[in-house]
Amino acid sequence: MEQTCSFHLPSYPNTTSTPTTPPPDYHSHPEGGEQCLGAATFPRARPTGTYVKKSKSMTIILTSQNPQASMPSYSRNGSVNGFILIENRTSVTEVQVELVGEMSVVIDRDRTTPLVQDHQTLWKYDSTSSDPESSSSSTPCPSAIPFACVFPPTFVSPAIVPVNTEPCSFPLPPSVNFRYPGEFVAAIEYHIKATVIYGRSPSLCFWNKMKTLTIPLSYLPRDRPLYAVSSGISFFSSLKIAPEEWHQTVSAIKPRLEGTVPPIDCSLFVPSLKVYGLSDIIPVHVNLTGPIQSLRELMPLQQHDKMNRQPSLIHIHIVRQVYVSLKNGRHAVRSSVIGEGKVHELPPHIDDTGWTNEVEEGIGTLHWESTIQCSSTVTLGSFRTDGISLKDFIILQVCPVKKSSHFPCHRVEVNIKLVTDAAGFDV
């Protein structure tokens, strides 16, 4: 006996006639109340042009260059690829290329450290050679000879290698040129040099003649932070949700004479990674906590008069320190401001209700927020090598508005590392 079973499928709305809820709008950048938690690495466009330098006897062509650049540029582990074109090839006996890097420091005396010495013989005349595939051959020198020299990732400084110890290596530093007349000179320079040796002409039978052509190179190893600086969310919300995202530096602002007024607690907050791209906008937060009497010594009651605005109490800068040293222990330091923060005071203000002249007791807290960014002229990140180092700091200065204040100017330093690129970019 056969039985027939019937199945009933659930009904679905007709999408052609029934409008559905549209998908939410998505944006490539965070909007209000949103923040970027992670981003894929964006590939960097590779230059495809050439850089050409020519003399009477030869031409050097460097590939993979920006044709608008004033100097060929290379990043970490970059390969200097190109061709040497030779005009008169009949008397050429040898063709060489050399990648050279050197660091020099001058204070009261000079110190020179070799960084790169990659010497290659590209072609050599040898009348006894019978192998036509050999680079040493009796055939005439080629009109175009390719070459490739690679920047090494590290170098060994002979100045600090003691006897019978393992050599100490440093990352290969970027090209720099610091000149402060009367103080010091520090330079790290790289160049590629082609040499053509002539000697087979009857008129040159007793000596060889050399022609050289040199091109200065810019070496800029790129780097980026592990993740981006959070943005689009207030400091107070972020501190509650993810306190580990902030690095706090606590210090005490003490009066000039002990016992005149109680000290004030100063807290400086910066993003905890402390590694930022040169183009990053870095959020900073400052709070001062202490007796109201002491806070008034720093910042008296304000007048809401835009034409008579008082000087700012809080100043935030990025300061770069260039440090150079010699083997004899001599060293020199030069500091400069490379970024200035935009500071805004947050409520409650000192002239709000409750902060009147009659109130002498009680504890108060003042807050400021700021964003700071490097100047667009800065192209180098922080680095340290034997003899030269670039150190960067976020500097907070609390300078009393009252000239007769019991408090001196207070300074807080936070050591940071600046890198060439923002998070998410391929380096």
UniProtKB/TrEMBL annotation:
Compositionally biased tracts (Low complexity): 10-19
Start and end residues of each stretch annotated as Disordered: 1-33
Alphabetized InterPro entries for the sequence: Arrestin-like_C
The protein's name: Uncharacterized protein
